[in-house]
Amino acid sequence: MNETVFRIFQLASSKYCCTQIMLKIQLEQEGIENTDLIKAVGGLCGGVGFSGGICGVLTGGICIIGLYSGKGREEEYNKEDFYEMIEEYINWFDAEYKSRECMDIIGSQLKKNNMKEPSYPVKCGEIIEKGLSKAWEIINKHGYELGARE
Prior knowledge:
Blueprint: H1 3-13, H2 18-29, H3 35-41, H4 56-69, H5 82-97, H6 102-106, H7 122-141
Helix pairs in contact: 1-2, 1-7, 2-3, 2-4, 2-7, 4-5, 4-7, 5-7
Organism: Maledivibacter halophilus
Protein name: C_GCAxxG_C_C family probable redox protein
């Protein structure tokens, strides 16, 4: 088991959800802690607000790409390749999972009976690992160095 897969397991065991896990691992690789960001992206999990809608791995990958090429300050603009990178990630996700909807991808395995203790199937860990790898691949392909952003 590689380090990323083990870390995904640890974070899922600590009740972080998919999008949170992706961003937490990204920030950890950069030596950064940002609890406000991790709290905020928690609303994207379980298919956006645990609705079974848009998969948190899709939104998580887009958020990671945004860390490298998105606008963060008033005086900034998105980098030229921002939309291209996002489109590449979305196209990969669509081809890989044939849907953007959490409920379509993991179906009845999504349990939202107790919102305080959401449960995620093993399949989610595999999707998270693939999503992280793809986001990192796209970032590198576009000339950004993981861990070295403004």
